[in-house]
């Protein structure tokens, strides 16, 4: 009985320690869940401090500074310049990345995961983040179809929900159009020829 109690206590401790990222990534409000981290004493920093305005004004990934920041919907955004902060403060939703900053290709499979600030695209005036070059390239194979999937899964399953629960669900129960990395690699190789 004592061993069972110790095991149960250990599992409870492990479960509670996993709650911090879940609370961080589920701030509530208009952008939840979100690809945020605790950084520089701030609880929820979007995209590890990337300047979301720079994608639009400089067509580049630029790291923001902790000393130039704004908070919107319980999320902290860093900027490289005071001018970028001012642009953001005037119209924040223009610059907030789609799907909470998670990988758009992951969202096409119902999986809120990843999102590297240096791998991105702007479609129709909106910022989309990807989990790396392969994810971006896979999404680009059929942007309209992938955008339709990502928008549907975000609206129907992900938005406002716990990202770990959703991620776990869709890793176990794949969407009907799921493709393995190997299948995507074959499609990408055909395009790159």
Provide a descriptive summary of the structure in words.
This protein has 193 residues and is of the alpha+beta class. It has two domains: 23-95, no CATH class; 97-193, no CATH class. The strands form three sheets. It has a two-stranded antiparallel ribbon with strand order 1-2. Strands 3-4 form a two-stranded antiparallel ribbon. It has helices spanning 2-17, 19-25, 54-57, 82-90, 92-95, 104-107, 133-140, 143-158, 163-172, 181-192, and strands at residues 36-39, 42-46, 65-72, 75-79, 116-123, 126-130. It contains ten helices and six strands; from the N terminus they run H-H-E-E-H-E-E-H-H-H-E-E-H-H-H-H. The termini are far apart.
Q: Can you tell me the number of structural domains?
A: 2
Q: For the terminal residues, how far apart are their CA atoms?
A: 63 Å
Q: Main sheet, how many strands, which sense, barrel? A: 2 strands, antiparallel
Helix proportion range: 40-55%
Number of strands: 6
- C-alpha geometry: globular
Q: Tell me the radius of gyration.
A: 18 Å
Low-pLDDT segments, ≥5 res? 9-23
Strand content: 15-25%
Average pLDDT reading = 88
Number of helices in the DSSP assignment: 10
What letter string, H or E per element, gives the SSE order?
HHEEHEEHHHEEHHHH
User: Which secondary-structure class do the elements indicate?
Assistant: alpha+beta
How would you write the strand order of the largest sheet? 1-2
